[in-house]
Design a protein that fits this description.
three-stranded antiparallel β-sheet, single chain, 10 strands, 42% strand, five-stranded antiparallel β-sheet
Length: 139
């Protein structure tokens, strides 16, 4: 499975449901049993098979967002920082980034899915999920 941006992200962005410059974003880890649906997965409650393990909290961890404006190429890039779990024993195959609202998973808007290319495991170590799925909006 390749990395992807959920279709609902652009709709949420245009309608003001997601504001990258001020919202809080989280990255949650999933196992290889989760198959994302680019078109129909819209909320965190649609995501199945979340990872569990020592040092991992359900729902994941916060990830910083960086916005870069390029007036030469006429585009805006939204990039998410790495998600890190220290002293962890985790196995995961991908990361799902979403807008964290702090309540029900059915309220959290999905942004993107980053595939690791296979399951990755830590054993009492640091698990780092590199968010390589930057979102570029070009005019």
């Amino acid at each position: 499975m390749a990395s992807l941006i959920y279709d609902s992200f652009m709709d949420d962005l245009c309608k003001g449901n997601i504001v990258p410059s001020s919202d809080t974003f989280y990255g949650m880890l999933v196992t290889s049993s989760y198959t994302p649906s680019k078109g129909s997965d819209t909320k965190r409650s649609n995501v199945t098979n979340e990872t569990s393990g020592t040092g991992y909290t359900a729902g994941g961890t916060s990830v910083a967002v960086t916005l870069t404006s390029d007036t030469t190429l006429h585009k805006e890039t939204i990039a998410f920082a790495d998600a890190v779990w220290t002293s962890s024993s985790i196995t995961a195959a991908a990361i799902v980034v979403y807008k964290h609202r702090g309540g029900l998973s059915s309220a959290d808007n999905l942004v993107c899915y980053g595939d690791f290319g296979g399951s990755v495991t830590t054993s009492s170590g640091t698990f780092t999920a590199h968010n390589s799925t930057a979102i570029a909006i070009t005019n």
